[in-house]
From TrEMBL:
<dbReference type="InterPro" id="IPR036513">
    <property type="entry name" value="STAS_dom_sf"/>
</dbReference>
<feature type="transmembrane region" description="Helical">
    <location>
        <begin position="192"/>
        <end position="210"/>
    </location>
</feature>
<protein>
    <recommendedName>
        <fullName>SLC26A/SulP transporter domain-containing protein</fullName>
    </recommendedName>
</protein>
<feature type="transmembrane region" description="Helical">
    <location>
        <begin position="305"/>
        <end position="324"/>
    </location>
</feature>
<feature type="transmembrane region" description="Helical">
    <location>
        <begin position="403"/>
        <end position="423"/>
    </location>
</feature>
<dbReference type="Pfam" id="PF00916">
    <property type="entry name" value="Sulfate_transp"/>
</dbReference>
<keyword id="KW-0472">Membrane</keyword>
<feature type="transmembrane region" description="Helical">
    <location>
        <begin position="373"/>
        <end position="396"/>
    </location>
</feature>
<feature type="transmembrane region" description="Helical">
    <location>
        <begin position="231"/>
        <end position="259"/>
    </location>
</feature>
<feature type="transmembrane region" description="Helical">
    <location>
        <begin position="429"/>
        <end position="460"/>
    </location>
</feature>
<keyword id="KW-1133">Transmembrane helix</keyword>
<feature type="domain" description="SLC26A/SulP transporter">
    <location>
        <begin position="42"/>
        <end position="435"/>
    </location>
</feature>
<dbReference type="GO" id="GO:0016020">
    <property type="term" value="C:membrane"/>
</dbReference>
<keyword id="KW-0812">Transmembrane</keyword>
<feature type="transmembrane region" description="Helical">
    <location>
        <begin position="118"/>
        <end position="139"/>
    </location>
</feature>
<dbReference type="InterPro" id="IPR011547">
    <property type="entry name" value="SLC26A/SulP_dom"/>
</dbReference>
<feature type="transmembrane region" description="Helical">
    <location>
        <begin position="83"/>
        <end position="106"/>
    </location>
</feature>
Amino acid sequence: MSNVAYISLENGTDSNSINWKTIVNKRIPVTAWIPHYTLATFFQDIVAGFTVGLTEIPQAIAYAIVAGLPPQYGLYSGLLDCIVYFIFGTCKDVNIGPTAIMALMVQPHVEKLGPDMAVLITFLSGAIIFVLGLLHLGFLVEFFSYPVIAGFTSAAAIQIGSSQIKSLLGIPGKANEFLEAWISVFKNITHISWWDSLLGVSTIILLILIKQVGRYGNRNSRPEFSTTRNILGKVLWLCSIARNAVVVIIGTLIAWILYTNGIKPFKLTGNIGKGLPTIQLPPFSTVFNNQTYSFVDMIKQYESSIAFVPLIAILEHVAIAKSFAKGKTIDATQEMIALGLCNLSGSFIRSMPVTGSFTRTAVNNASGVQTTLAGVVVTAMVLLALGFLTATFAFIPKATLAAVVICAMIHLIDYKAIITLWRTKKMDLIPFIITLLASLLVGLEYGILIGICSNILFVLHSSARPSIEIEREKFPQGDVFVVTPSRSLQFPSAEYLREKVIQDCYDPKVTVVLNGKYINNVDATVAKNFKVLADDLILREQNIIFWNFKMNVRNICKGVDQKLVDFFKDGNLQDIIEAAAPNGVPTLMVRF
């Protein structure tokens, strides 16, 4: 258990006073736990931060390259965000920084107008996320269903992995779209660099082996085992956790030794900007290829990305925070405020968009992190890398970074989604497949939009065609047809209900009883169709009774036609039927 309590804050105010301490603790969470911070906890956070830093540095460089940015932009993205989240974040495990999906979403805009496009959308995304948090509009992400999310993330992972195949094989040129990447690979198959291919494939194999060795080490680092076995197990576990850094160090060392001896078999990352970024305003205009673009021109280039980049950032971040909450409630509003501030502050030091990283958050959790202070340790490591290691980073082979990205994407693809959806509801496979294919073939922004629309169509179809069960029951006065829709009715299902009753419940001189037991609400369209249904049944000499309806539903129907109120009845159904059919005429009942 952590020695630092992440306090669950309630609205500790009465009607006459405001508890300012509670408000401050809620909106600046660090003030709630920092007074209880201990030296033992600090050492645990250092270990976790150091371990995450070994993962973040190579990933940050790799994701900057995925975004089409100079490598140092990835490192810039690991500076202020961790410090801001240390102050405003509520989930100790979450690591904020560059991610593969964010990199892929900004890549087309960077390619069009240069790095300033990534920095500006970081600022705009931060502002949008921050405002959405203040307005408590986090519910917007609820429109992203599991099939759509799984299809989108899987497509993004496949597209990112595909874009790295050329670097893995040493094929020259750029190809970032899924089809474009594979077409380019096959067209240039004769230009494969066998040395790059050997290094890239070997790196992938090494990453997989180190991960498996880490599992062995984790099983052997237990108190009941000998000290030597424990130490060996912990070393293997640490190597597994920091496997990205391990393979990058090995690849860089091999390249450096060969290049210092005049042998140049690999394509290298090249020079990385040295030193810390300059604090400056985000670019509200840019110059690209000797042409000046205004703020409006840049906004037009973003198209739908200006909405989807912040929404996907929120979705990634909140989902990760909930995954590692361990039974605790997550303040989604505060997390959105924190994420918005992370992006806003990052835009002043040339950062690309950031959000929660599932990979690094998992590493953070496995390393025994205790508080968000571990993020400050990560920032310190990134600062050291920018200050002293940029010359070394120039020797990182592109094939090694491509292997790191591809291995990360292998784990990002949601393989289990197909099995889960098949076992639960097979129809959900349709929006999953639509989102997956649209994202790969049309683009991520349009793909997720198409996926959401397809999912909404399924919801509307379900609303328009509610399940209606029809039974024939016997009463002393005669047979009764019982028609039972499964839920409340809204305007898409209004006409379907009327047609169903008219078609399946035809029996002259039989009264229709509509049981409103499960109807919590109706709209004006449904109420109007009740009136039309009553008129139709009366025309063919069938009576109608609305039974067990709630008062709010009656009032809505009353607004359509005052006379409709006369059809509403309460009480024992048999008594109502008897009163409606005093001469023993058979009765038709429709129950909702």
